[in-house]
Write a structure and sequence with these properties.
The structure holds two protein chains of two kinds. Chain A is mostly beta strands. Helix content of chain A is 0%, strand content 47%. Chain A contains no helices and eleven strands. In chain A, strands 2, 4, 5, 6, 9, 10 and 11 form a seven-stranded mixed beta sheet that branches. Chain A has a four-stranded antiparallel beta sheet with strand order 1-3-8-7, with no helix packed on it. In chain B, the strands form two sheets. In chain B, strands 2, 4, 5, 9, 10 and 11 form a six-stranded mixed beta sheet that branches. A five-stranded antiparallel beta sheet of chain B has the order 1-3-8-7-6, with no helix packed on it. Chain B is globular and about 40 Å long. Classes of the chains: A mainly beta, B mainly beta. The interface between A and B is medium-sized, with 24 and 28 residues.
């Protein structure tokens, strides 16, 4: 099992360019998440999808959009990249969006390192 | 006050040492708690969940103190391979209806020969 797969692993953009980060999971998980990780800060939730067909804003959604294409895939789009969006982005999934033993354990992708010049 | 706070470290310890990390959380209604491990330039991975009664997994022991709102991680007989950043994660599930997993910034551990 591949788990959670993210592409690309690295990307350099110029300010104002757009791009989409792709994420796919093969664990039949219902919920998917996009986080960003910056030095000295905890992972911060950008957007999440509790289940197929739904998406909601997290803690830091400004400048991003998402699409839950199907149960497996959840993409993150930067419409007009800014230097403040330089970060490491992690896609993750959980079996469920509610609590319950094991249901809320996150499985992460390997991360996408984005630099905006 | 941050929702989840950790000492960033680094904790530099020799092999074989015992080391403990604490993590404090601000929401007394938090539902569940976890420790994740993150190696340099890698993704976080679940190390262990933290149960109310405390739990142990080999050399690792996790404790929860709800009254003082902190969780702890104890590592005994440290190995070089334990060198990593340890992330404290608190789940405010049902707050807004989803798994609101709040991450601490992490505590870095460096084990040396």
């Amino acid at each position: 099992n591949a788990g959670v797969t993210q592409t690309p692993k690295f990307q350099v953009l110029k300010t104002g360019q757009s791009m989409t980060l792709q994420c796919a999971q093969d664990m039949n998980h219902n919920s998917m998440y996009w986080y960003r990780q910056d030095p000295g800060m905890g992972l911060r939730l950008i957007y999440y999808s509790a289940s197929e067909g739904t998406t909601d804003k997290g803690e830091v959604p400004n400048g991003y959009n998402v699409s839950r294409l199907n149960k497996r895939e959840f993409s993150l789009r930067l419409e007009s990249a800014a230097p403040s969006q330089t970060s490491v982005y992690f896609c993750a999934s959980t079996r469920s969006w509610t609590g319950g033993l094991g249901a809320n354990v996150l499985t992460f992708g390997a991360g996408s390192r984005l630099t905006v010049l | 006050r941050k929702e989840v706070e950790q000492d960033p470290g680094p904790f530099n310890v020799p092999e074989g040492a015992t080391v403990a990390f604490n993590c404090t959380y601000s929401n007394s209604a938090s539902q569940s708690f976890f420790w994740y491990r993150q190696d340099c330039r890698k993704e976080p991975k679940l190390l262990m969940s933290v149960y109310s009664s405390g739990n142990e997994d080999g050399r690792f022991t996790a404790q929860l103190n709800r009254a003082s709102q902190y969780i702890s991680l104890l590592i005994r007989d440290s190995k070089l391979s334990d060198s990593a950043t340890y992330l404290c994660v608190v789940n405010d599930a049902f707050s807004g209806g989803y798994n609101k997993l709040i991450f601490g910034a992490g505590t870095r551990l460096a084990v040396h020969p």
